[in-house]
Amino acid sequence: MASVRNKVNPLLCNLPYVLTWRKFGFRTICSGRLGFAPSTSPSMADVDTPVAGTKVLDTFAEEFEIGSRKITLETGKIARFANGSVILAMEETKVLSTVASSKGDAVRDFLPLTVDYQEKQFAQGVIPKTFMKREGAPKERELLCGRLIDRPIRPLFPSGFYHEVQVMASVLSSDGKQDPDILAANASSAALMLSDIPWGGPIGVIRIGRISGQFVVNPSMEELSISDLNLVYACTRDKTLMIDVQAREISEKDLEAALRLAHPEAVKYLEPQIRLAAKAGKQKKEYKLSMVSEKTFEKIQNLAKEPIEAVFTDPTYGKFERGEALEKITQDVKRALEEEGDDEGLKILPKTVDTVRKQVVHRRIMSEGLRVDGRRLDEVRPLYCEAGNLPVLHGSAIFSRGDTQVLCTVTLGAPGDAQRLDSLVGPSSKRFMLHYSFPPFCTNEVGKRTGLNRREVGHGTLAEKALLAVLPPEDDFPYAVRINSEVMASDGSTSMATVCGGSMALMDSGIPLREHVAGLSVGLVSEVDPSTGEIKDYRILTDILGLEDHLGDMDFKIAGTRNGVTAIQLDIKPAGIPLDIICESLDPALKGRLQILDHMEREISAPRIQDDRYSPRLVTLKYSNDALRRLIGPVGALKRKIEDETGARISVSDGTLTIVAKNQSVMEKVQEKVDFIIGREIEIGGVYKGIVVSVKEYGAFVEFNGGQQGLLHISELSHDPVSRVSDVVSVGQQLSLMCIGQDVRGNIKLSLKATLPRSEFKTDIVDEPVAPASQVVNVWAAIEDISNEQEKQGATAGPETNDSTLKSATPAVLIRSAAECDEEEKSDGLNSKSDNGSQSASKSDKKTRTPSSLSESGFSSRNIKSKRAKDAILDLISDDESEQKHTSEVGLHSQIGSTSETPMSAKKLKLGMRVSAKVHQIRALGLVLDLGGGIRGMYRFEPGTKRDFEVGDELRVKCSSFSTKGIPVLSLVKEE
Q1: pLDDT at 849
Q2: Strand 84-90 relative to strand 687-695: parallel, antiparallel, unpaired?
Q3: CA-CA distance, 813 to 809, in Å (whole number)?
Q4: CA-to-CA distance for 518 and 601, rounded, in angstroms?
Q5: Chain segment 790-818, per-residue pLDDT in tens
Q6: Alpha-carbon 650 to chain mean position
Q7: How far from 629 is each of 488, 621, 644, 679, 708, CA to CA, in Å?
């Protein structure tokens, strides 16, 4: 030890050793830290020091294997003061379950069993994200797992055992591969077996999945994610206790096969628990049971039986009328017992009267086949369905079955509205949420609304599982969906009514469901042999009332489509029901479900097409991550500002922007703001809103789509001829424009007239009708700006031309940037004339360009957004202006197009008139024709026609139309 100290800090070892004695209160310094001297120090050799003893923990364990997974049960090491404690481990996932019971003999008529399940974040090595950095109130999953444990163990407590019992299950460690809920249920069973609490176990709980048609025992979380079945099955050695199913339309036949497989696998959990209890279990205590004496029971039965039979045999009673009549009978019996001074009978009166009611109902169903409300055993109560009853909402529906009524509403949201989950296993979020609410007024009671209620969470999750199977895939419908189910009146199976109402509300909201889902509850009334406890006879009831649920033996909720089952929840009251009876109940449940589906489909059978002002709008757009960062802004401020101003929800993920708006007007506002910031992908035929930033003689420049600019040429302002651009548009004016094409440089051409309705006009037609508007050519391109390949192609079509035409067409206009146009205006002026030499000489400095092809779906964002600088602003110059600059010898504008004199074409030429003309000039895409009288016109080469003309050739032509400045546009007339 001294050598260690010398090595660490030799200066500290020069202290006198006497200074380190404990009796002086000094400490030694080891490795730079203060600590007590070791017990082996030579200074302590002569001192008597008590030495701590070694405690040996009596640990007992059982190992076994189920579904190729090793499972261990262990007790004695942890939580030794609990009445019973067990650690169950499967691979690296471990769950501790403890049980405790109160010692007093409280007077009550029910079993106060509490089951708590908790998942703390330390089990996966994570600190909670909450502000307090600790776990808070129970989460939904924890409540559901607690119910999963409670339902199979509750029926096995002996009748009359009313002592308070608490079961607590905690996850100690989780590897994320196994769901701890099944482990907790089996561990709780083992803990009850070890305790001195009377209980009729053990039980086994197993999970079954199905992958590619093959059943899997104890599937991992990864296997469960691709399974179309999630079956949790609990049983004793020969009877079923609990079933919980989530499936994707599994047939009744396949479901029965899964149940038949699950039972023997679950039984494998029983023997290890029995062996562990034999080694480490406690002797069961003698608890005082709250039993009813035969004498007292017979007295109350004689007083209440006949009046109760009279009520139950009268089908005219409604739920509350029947309840009031039964309560009156109870008060009459109470007065009779008070007169006799029977204190024992008064204490157990409510429980005893309830037992008499159960006997009366069972006897009438078993002997007469009639139920409380007069229905047959397989008869479904009257149905009422209504979809879209609240048109302001995204989706709504009312569903009534008998006196049970629910109102379901649907709200659509952005993907960011999905619920975040903090579970140890499973997904981190869920996009489909169903919230079930059971207000006190639905049973005409007074109550207080509190936080999460176990019953409400359980019923809502059951309905959520049932509907989840028919929702479209997330890739096709990536939006958050919330169903809110409000129970308006309750008389049995409100969770199954929620399934029916929720399915119709989803259809009403326009969500493309594959099938309607419906559900109902199947009950059981049985006669049991008192000596053996076996069921002698039974009856299966379809669509049970609330009273039949309370007085019956089983509540078997089954939901599904016409194709199969999507969700099941089985709860029972006796200590188990044979699996054969459970499987037999599937057939009447299917028949009843089909009847309900018929009614639902008559009300609404397909997703509604939402076109009203209240329907939500959902848009998903693709952008680069750089563009999305501009939209979000610093710390998301810009995104939040847009949401606050419009009320819409914006969700951003990798390369995807999703906008959810309440209606179309809100959606348009949001898209305008988004387009102004980052723009969107431009497509031919797409309509965009823009602002005029400058006006030229030949058109207007418009800024749109997040700062991009395009040219609105004078020829695209209106269907009618426009003499001045300023007569139609002005700087600062907002316009809706259509993208009609792209020039050779990738610049954008816009059209206003393409968004306007075509005006009807009449004119005199001579000889033949006018050529279609799609064939009219208003402008030409200069010959030097077109390649030889382009000379063989036709002109670019108007906005009505399809994409395939645009791909092979040559732009009919020359497009330059605004900078080039402004520079040319300053130097030369629009009306300057070039030399009278040949065309090739006048434009020899121009470069030949080839057009870029357009994709079928529009422009790529890369090509469009590369032109956003000012030097890439589009400038469309028609050949009318080109003629002013480069072809002064033609004289068309000086003779016809000049605004100082009246165009002669209006007097001498009419549409459809046939005349003779001479070739005055040969251009790249057409001819300049001399019509005589100082009039010249334009003729464009047509595909497949003759092009080898010479100056001076005479042609027979027809006037097809006029350009915006009155220049005749001609077409050849075939000689007969």
Answers
A1: 35
A2: unpaired
A3: 12
A4: 11
A5: 333 333 333 333 333 333 333 333 334 44
A6: 15
A7: 47, 14, 19, 13, 18
| Cα three-residue angle 953-955-961, rounded to 5 degrees | 130
Concatenate the DSSP letters of all residues of 80-115 into one string: TTSSEEEEEEETTEEEEEEEEE--S----SS--EEE
- The partner residues of 232 in beta bridges, in order of sequence, read 207, 244
Give me the pLDDT at residue 14, please: 47
User: What count of other Cβ atoms lies within 10 Å of the Cβ of residue 351?
Assistant: 15
Per-residue pLDDT, 513: 92
Token pair belonging to 901: 């004199």
Task: Show contacts of 383-391: CB within 8 Å, 24+ apart.
Answer: 383/595, 383/596, 383/599, 385/500, 385/504, 385/599, 385/600, 385/602, 385/603, 385/604, 386/603, 387/504, 387/505, 387/507, 387/508, 387/603, 387/604, 387/608, 388/508, 388/604, 388/608, 391/612, 391/614
CA distance 705 to 967: 35
Tokens of 885: 């600059």
d(CA 581, CA 537): 11
The answer to whether residues 479 and 554 touch, using CB atoms and an 8 Å cutoff, is no
Write down the pLDDT at residue 610. 66
> What pLDDT shows up at residue 245?
97
Q: Is the pTM of this model over 0.70?
A: no
Class of residue 391 by CB neighbours under 10 A (exposed 0-12, middle 13-18, buried 19+)? exposed
What is the chain's Cα-based Rg? 43
CA gap 403, 387 in Å, rounded: 18
Measured between alpha carbons, how far is 237 from 577 in angstroms, rounded to an integer? 11
Give the strand order in the sheet containing 395-401.
383-387, 395-401, 404-413, 480-489, 432-437
- 187: Cβ–Cβ under 8 A, 6 or more apart, which residues? 73, 86, 87, 88, 95, 96, 97, 169
**Cα distance between residue 186 and residue 271, in whole Å:** 12
From 483, 489, 306, 455, select the one nearest 384 (Cα to Cα).
489
Residue ranges of the alpha helices (H) in 738-848? 788-791, 803-808, 818-827, 839-842
Pairing of strands 935-940, 968-972: parallel
- With H, G, I as helix, E, B as strand and everything else as coil, classify residue 27: coil
Could you tell me if 308 and 220 are in contact, meaning their C-beta atoms sit under 8 angstroms apart? no
Q: What is the DSSP string of 311-368?
A: HHT-TT--HHHHHHHHHHHHHHHHHHHHHHT-HHHHHTHHHHHHHHHHHHHHHHHHHH
Report pLDDT for 83. Answer: 93
Owner of token pair 């032109």? 867
Q: In what order do the strands lie in the sheet with 229-235?
A: 214-217, 204-211, 229-235, 240-250, 565-572, 554-560, 518-528, 535-542
Task: For tokens 């969770």, name the residue.
Answer: 495
Question: Residue ranges of the chain with pLDDT lower than 70?
Answer: 1-51, 105-107, 610-615, 680-681, 706-707, 743-746, 758-908, 964-966, 975-976
Question: For residue 940, what are its two tokens?
Answer: 């464009």
Predicted local distance difference test score (pLDDT) of residue 609: 79
- The DSSP output letter for 895 is I
Q: What one-letter code names the amino acid at 467?
A: L
Write down the pLDDT at residue 41. Answer: 44
Q: What are phi and psi of 15, to 5 degrees?
A: -65, 145
Residue 347: its pLDDT value, please?
82
* Element spanning 863, H or E: helix 861-865
Contacts of 326 (CB under 8 A, 6+ apart): 308, 311, 357
CA distances from 902 to 756, 830, 895, 917 (A): 29, 21, 9, 21
- Answer positive or negative: Cα dihedral of 450, 452, 453, 457: positive
- Residue 137: per-residue pLDDT: 87
Write down the H helix ranges in 870-929.
879-886, 892, 905-908
- The pLDDT value recorded for residue 878 is 35
In 3D space, the residue among 194, 190, 110 whose CA is nearest the CA of residue 157 turns out to be: 110
Q: Other C-beta atoms within 10 Å of 972: how many?
A: 16
